[in-house]
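User: Hey, quick favor. My workstation is busy. Could you predict this chain's structure for me?
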Amino acid sequence: MFNNQHISVVIPALNEALAIGKVVGGLRALCNGNGTALIDDIVVCDNGSTDDTVRVAEQHGARVVMQRKKGYGIACLTAIRHLRQTDIVLFVDGDDSCVLTQAIRLIAPVGAAEADIVIGSRTLGQVEAGALTPPQAFGNWVATTLIRWIWCCEMTDLGPFRAIRFEALKSLCMQDEQFGWTVEMQIKALQKDLLMIEVPVDSTCRIGESKISGTLSGVIGAGKGILGKILALWWSGRRSKKSASATAGSVSRLAGCNGSLKVR
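Assistant: No problem, here it is.
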């Protein structure tokens, strides 16, 4: 609980038995200044693990839901569908790469109504050697550069560590089931004029092998998913603007062009 607002955590997980206990336990240990628990509910979506991820997560106090269809995005979507009534949702990876004590940096601006969504930027923080592989760093740079060119937004990271107001999350109608999940959230937030900020967060080397950067197919799949999502959202945005412009023109003519009706 933060400022009388319920805080939920979503953790997508695939074969994270070595790390998930530390992550869940670390989240449960977070406290407000008065000693009360910061986190109210933790939902881990197991994405078809073949190790003890489920058992370890439950032992440390998380609620576990299952999603056999592989995909980072669909695991997040599944966990969201199982959230109880909440106010703020914190997204965390289950590999212990996020510095959990920095969660308050993400939650506080949302809880204080200073932002709808807060992205933890590893680029602005400290990155432990080896925490981000060269393909990850390059892909992040390419994606954020495209966003800057297309949407004129100085974004530095697509990192997984983020917090968002639950009502804002619902308004985004998230759909991506794979690696385009994070960039979909950020671009849709821009398109909907949500108040989004970045704050520096640190990143440490994950426990276990990465499902993305650990294999060539993972790197290629993530790159295609992220770039494909950027282009798809750009194209859909163009079509929406053309439709809105056509509608505005028709309405203006019907209204005698008196400017009394504006279409954003």
